[in-house]
Design brief:
Blueprint: H1 2-34, H2 37-50, H3 53-58, E1 60-71, E2 77-82, H4 84-92, E3 99-111, E4 114-125, E5 128-142, E6 145-153
Parallel strand pairs: 1-6
Antiparallel strand pairs: 1-2, 3-4, 4-5, 5-6
Length: about 160
């Protein structure tokens, strides 16, 4: 009698452990897929590399702002704003050479539905170095997806460490 009860207890515990592991794995997999700002950032650079305007557009909010820090004609440092649609169209227009933005030192901070990312980059057209700098991005999580709401970058042709 005791051995039958012991087998039932062990079987019950086994199924409880299996059920718990399946649920935790499912929740973790969904959470990782839906809550990773890094995945959205990687998708942007993949889109650039592959010339995929549709993928590029999917990582941005509709009202995203793109800016570059530069020196204007008067020598004043400003933030020059670009158009998202022009950027996405440029990515999706066939290129003779691959656009390859190589990112290093990626750091991401998250609070609730806001993420901030900072990274060094070097941009290549094909195998030829074009420029380097820093990307600073803000992303928001909307409907379970992280999307870029703002990018501002610096650009230079030397001192790329």
């Amino acid at each position: 009698m005791e051995s039958a009860n012991m087998r039932k207890l062990i079987a019950g515990m086994f199924w409880l452990v299996v059920f718990t592991l399946v649920n935790v794995t499912t929740i973790y997999s969904q959470d990782e897929r839906l809550s990773s700002p890094q995945k959205s950032i990687e998708s942007l650079f993949k889109a650039m590399y592959e010339g995929d305007g549709i993928l590029a557009k999917s990582v941005f909010t509709e009202d995203a702002v793109l800016q570059t820090v530069h020196v204007n004609k008067e020598g004043k440092i400003t933030a020059k704003t670009g158009e998202l649609e022009q950027f996405v169209t440029a990515i999706g227009t066939p290129h003779e050479k691959v656009w390859d933005e190589r990112v290093t030192n990626l750091k991401i901070n998250i609070d609730a539905d806001l993420a901030q990312a900072w990274m060094d980059y070097s941009f290549y057209v094909g195998d030829e170095f074009s420029h380097c700098g820093v990307n600073a991005m803000h992303l928001i999580r909307s409907d379970g997806e992280w999307r870029i709401v703002h990018i501002i970058d610096t650009r230079r042709n030397s001192d790329c460490n």
